[in-house]
Amino acid sequence: MKNPTAEFLESVVAVLRMNDQERQFLFLYATGELPPAPGPADYALHPGWAQLVERQPHPACIHTRRWDLIAANAGYLDLLFGAEAGSVAELPDRNVLRWVLLNKACRAERLVDWRDSWAAPMLGELRAAIAADPDSQDLMTLLDSLLADPVVKELWDAEVGVFRTHPDGTMLSIDDPAHGRVDFTILAANVMHARELRFVALMSTGPGFRPGSVEGRGAAPAYL
User: Fold this and answer.
1) Which pLDDT tens digit goes with each residue over 118-174?
2) By CB distance 3.0 to 4.6 Å, which of 81, 135, 192, 208 could disulfide with 85?
3) Smallest Cα–Cα separation from 217: which of 59, 42, 88, 82?
4) 213 burial via Cβ count (<10 Å: 0-12, 13-18, 19+)
């Protein structure tokens, strides 16, 4: 068949009960492009990923395309959310974007150069995600919750047209009460079997933060 539609190909996937790799190969062979990534309801994180996150020597996490945490090790929770964070399941809000943009301590104390190095680039990522999927109710709901804050709304309006598709390779700093200034590089990659899940590691570039034991500290999957 010449130029098969996505709907036709998805019906083939369903009839033949293809797995994700078979689905991707079918779309590549038929159209030359990868298929749309599964929706949030289809996320099925392999348990090995949660173990990998837990065993990372650097702060690490896995989050969805709308920045909802699925797994995080103790180093990540301590560094980003503070010493009081016990596990992903215990966080009052698992959304990384809301935490970074709306938390007063993040703005005023913890996140170095919050406006230009953290907030504006992350809003650029959100803008790019919405441009890629303008019909996503999840992303629009997230945006609405952020724009209710006047500081974030001012930033959003000022950065019209600014996009960033990923944070990989970005260098950032956090002022941590227990560890002092922590400089790190973000390393990010997508989970291949669920491409809208993102693995993120914060690789320290200085002598500051040294995450302790993560035993029992909430890297087990916490699906949303």
Assistant:
1) 999 999 999 988 988 888 888 999 999 999 999 999 999 998 777 788 889 999 999
2) 81
3) 88
4) exposed
Burial (CB count within 10 angstroms: exposed 0-12, middle 13-18, buried 19+), residue 61: buried
- Tokens standing for residue 197: 């899940």
CB-based contacts of 153, cutoff 8 Å, min separation 6: 146, 147
Strand ranges (E), 120-213? 171-176, 180-191, 194-204
What totals of helices (H) and strands (E) does the chain contain, helices first?
Answer: 9, 5
Total residues belonging to the chain = 224
Q: Are 96 and 69 in contact (CB under 8 A)?
A: yes
Q: Report CA torsion sign: 116, 118, 120, 124.
A: positive
The predicted model scores a pTM of: 0.75
Q: DSSP for 36-104, please give it.
A: PPPPGGG----HHHHHHHHH-SS-EEEE-TT-BEEEE-HHHIIIII-TT---GGG-S--BHHHHHHH-H
With beta carbons less than 8 A apart as the criterion, state whether 199 and 62 touch: yes
